Amino acid sequence: MRPLLFALCTLLSTAYAAGPAPVFKAGAATSNITPELGSSINGGFQDGKAVYIHDELNARCLALDDGKTKLVMVVADSCVIGRGIFDEAKKMVHEATGLPLENMLMSATHSHSCGTAQAVGQSEPNPMYQRFLARRIADGVQRALNNLAPAKIAWGSVDVPQHVYNRRWKMKPGGIPPTPHGVTTDQVKTNPGVNNPNLLEPAGPTDPQVSFISVQSAEGKPIALYANYSLHYVGGVGPGHISADYYGVFANRVGELLGADRQDPPFVGIMSNGTSGDINNVDFRGGQAKEGPYGRIKIVANDVAQAVAGACKTLKYQDWVPLGVAQKEVTLGLRIPTQEEVEKARAVTKQSKLFPRMETMEQVYARETVLLADFPKEVSAPLQVLKIGELRVSAIPAEVFVEIGLGMKKRHPQTFTVSLANAYHGYLPTPEQHQLGGYETWRARSACLEVDASTKIVTGLEELFKKLK
Q1: Are 406 and 205 contacting, i.e. CB atoms less than 8 angstroms apart?
Q2: Dihedral angle computed from the Cα positions of residues 448, 454, 460 and 465, in that order, rounded to the nearest 10 degrees
Q3: Torsion over CA: 73, 76, 79, 80 (sign)
Q4: What pLDDT, in 10s, does the model give residues 171-191?
Q5: Can you give the pLDDT at residue 262?
Q6: Running DSSP on this structure, what letter comes out for residue 335?
């Protein structure tokens, strides 16, 4: 009897030491970040002003908890958001909850009809809106954490190829005009115009895949869906309109299709921007019908939501998966103009009859040259990879070219990349695309990273992937 008693005591002791099985939890929330009327709207070469709120802007937040590690994913309706705002929001959350700063992935959608959060083009942010934005993002995260409840999770992908087009085109001889900097060696033209007779072929591929994460309550009620699509934005809003673009319409539509649009707490649909630095929604061969304001937005959002909702029916949800995160900083060089270039540019800016506002593209880029003269020679860029079971989510603080995302997916089948994440450092072409020239390579505050920046970033991300194995 003594050996049997000893074995029983050992079993009970082991079970007691192990404790109860960990419970996977998820929570989601939105936080309104709509700016006031009269606010600056960025995304163009000229500043815009908000005169009408078509639909409210939000920071959409998803929190995950495996019992040991909590992760938060936030997507804010904004064209671009600088690191200072994201860092301030993360600091507020950390001070209130203890959640580590590196456990939060925050990104912007890149809608061109939102309030200006960072100086870009000829738009300047209101410091009051920047503080408001950081506070409201932090509030959304805390609300999502407060909503954590037992949940199950799944992820998948579905192709929606009909809405993504590479916007960089190789042209017939003579089809590419000089750049605003006077360069005549560009081999591609960005947004060349529909049915342009000089079109040859796109200068790069597209990524038709919509990747997504779906979380449900333990009883199977949808909690949130976080999606990722490599589409720059759609546009076609009214003049002076504030709108979340197709990102906001998708968020609402996918909830309707999942039967989760009237819940308590509310279901949260989320669409993040994938690797879309050279991708938009314009068929330059002329295959699209003309739509009125918001018409194309609704078509794209509905098609993507329909595809995702259908794919959700095939998913197998897991009651628990391990979570993890790895993050590092990489140093990237900037393409800073010479003193001679700055002096020439300053003379060009003074030709504007509306100085200090610039009128022509040459003047706009001359102003960018003058402003870049005060930039540092190097910047530190945050890279991040989240681990969600076998899935990996990369975060890059730039407008990432599609080739980079496709390469990541080829090396890591269960992954997707979030652009405009945790900071903003402008366009991120590959070195090969840099050699072709085009708008995304023209030196400006939104396009000033060194030619090999993408190589350094991919190398850094691969190091993070290894850490999370």
Answers
A1: yes
A2: 140
A3: negative
A4: 999 999 999 999 999 999 999
A5: 85
A6: -
C-alpha Rg value of the chain to the nearest Å = 24
Q: Which residue has the tokens 């969600």?
A: 388
Tokens encoding 66? 């495996």
Average pLDDT, integer, range 290-316: 97
User: For the chain, what is the total number of helices (H) and then of strands (E)?
Assistant: 10, 23
| Amino acid present at 262 | R
- 3-state percent breakdown (helix, strand, coil) of the chain, nearest 5: 30, 30, 40
Q: CB count, 10 Å around CB of 8?
A: 10
| CA gap 164, 166 in Å, rounded | 7
Six-digit token string for 402: 């599609």
**Number of neighbouring beta carbons within 10 Å of residue 43:** 20
Structure tokens at 433: 């695309």
Q: Where are the domains of the chain?
A: 25-168+189-336+375-467
Q: Which two three-digit tokens encode residue 330? A: 């990489």
Instruction: Report angle CA 279, 424, 193 to the nearest 5 degrees.
Output: 25
Q: Region 390-418: what's the mean pLDDT? A: 98
pLDDT at 164 over 50: yes
Dmax of the chain from CA atoms?
101
Place of tokens 């001359």: 366
Whole-number Cα distances in Å, 45 to 105, 358, 432: 29, 9, 26
Interval 9-22: pLDDT, tens: 444 444 445 568 89
Tell me the two tokens of residue 412: 């890591």
